[in-house]
Amino acid sequence: METTGFWPALSAAERGKVAELAVRRTYRRGDVVCHEGDHAAVVVLLLSGHVRITNATSDGREVVVAVRGTGDVVGELGAIDGQPRSATVEALDEVEALVVPAARFAALCRREASISWVLLLVLAARLRDVGRQRSDIGGGSIARRVAVQLMQLAVEQGVRAGDDIVVAIPGTQAELAMTAAISRESWARATRGLRRDGVISTSRGRVVIHRMEDLRRLAR
User: 6-135 adopts what CATH topology?
Assistant: First the structure.
């Protein structure tokens, strides 16, 4: 179940038109791709790796709102409306990317209706995801929130290995707990229960889902 997004949805010819405007760049783990509040300068197409997207709250906390991976695009909203960055983007591992000046990306989308349509579909899917996450993760028991979160990660980033699904975890326990709107201790307790019941197993940086049906049952 490989991650899909803007880049894979483009045709070879469309990718070529984007690549002509871009420079290739590597970000290391912890590198900040852009800061919240910055004026949009570039659009970043992720060829490999993962980034986390965070917002700062009024009381100074950092909230993880999304994780993007291979094939995704970030920075597109600033290119469209010219407004400052709405979030901070940070590399979670080594990221290979194509970096396109925002003005050139916007001009390309105005010229190429098919590229604009792919971008529109990506934005529509993200809007649907936001609504689904608010209803799924934002309510219910802690066990249900964690089950929903693990299922989402499996769909977005999971790789099948026989009857199992292996998920590389994009972030720390604290960050995952934050996106599920629970404490790190509660997240650890819920995953410990899932391990005890044989639904999942964990190791550093990854979760293996052994019984997806049990996870689905918990998420209902």
Answer: Jelly Rolls (2.60.120)
